[in-house]
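Hi P.,

Sorry for the delay on this. The queue was packed all week, but I finally got your sequence through. Input first:
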Amino acid sequence: MARIEKIELRMVDLVPKVKRTDAIQSFVSQETPIVTITDSDGATGTGYSYTIGTGGSSVMRLLRDHLAPFIIGRDADEIEAIWHDLEFHTHATTIGVITSIALAAIDTALWDLRARKFGLPLWKLAGGAKDRCPLYTTEGGWLHIETGALVDDALAAKAKGFTGSKVKIGKPHGSEDFARLEAVRKAVGDGYEIMTDANQGFRLDEAIRRAERLRDLDLAWIEEPLAADDIDGHVRLSNSTSTPIAVGESLYSIRHFREYMQKGGCSIVQVDVGRIGGITPWLKVAHAAEAFDIPVCPHFLMELHVSLTCAVPNGKYVEYIPQLDEITATQMKIEDGHALAPTTPGIGIDWDWDELKRRSIEEFSAVVTERGE
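Then the structure:
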């Protein structure tokens, strides 16, 4: 039995390579908490999560002051027990995004550690359903991008073998969204998928109206049309349109997903490992979705989600948004528009440790070796 002896904490701040805008915000900074766990055998595992510009300092304080000390001395292979103990330990702040982001970094590190010790890539350890998954791209579809550039990016992605392109919606009038999407549809033809994302920007009446207007464009889905906690609104919307409704990036509990699926509030699940609290709950959501015959198309974190999407039979797409290029030595492998599952043991991320150390924010760097409560 190998026990957790040391936990190293650091955070790096990654500036997106392109301007990212949607219906409610601009994404200008990605705070990236990184956790490395060492056990008594000398084996290590590294996990991470992210914010979109705020909350990183709170995540790091939660890790340093409460979560990391709490698991020193624990059996590193008791991942399920550790996750539930940490959830209960933070019950006063659960379910919430700060807690979930912190839990995700620890849980992912433990899975990386386990996979490395077994000598298996994560996608095989967690299920091994397939060794590749189709990609769709988001980077060329942000809300500020002009229609001509949307078309050019979608055509370029199609030429590379990508399955589809996501276009942000939420312009002041529905006619603007329709014109942009219609131009893309005419350019790429009927065999190429167009995903849309409203980023919780609509009220129910407007969501119903816009979904009806966009119906003839045969969209792959409308993502986060309403506030994420409005389950009944999503049920009403889903019942009013034949276009699939996607939710998940802003849900932080497996129970929230259960309610959505039970009530018929979505037909695409976009569970995000960095938001749900790690690989342990991610897999629970994915398996529950399979029972409802619902595909999983995870949000963001492509470098990690490729392994999880390949682990489960209902993993359908990986979202292409390059995130870690500046702090990894090698990038996710792509072949004919498909993300290839990593073949190396662990979660499949080849960290550039020199660059990570150079970019680490000193204020949030710490090494935890003592047990705490």
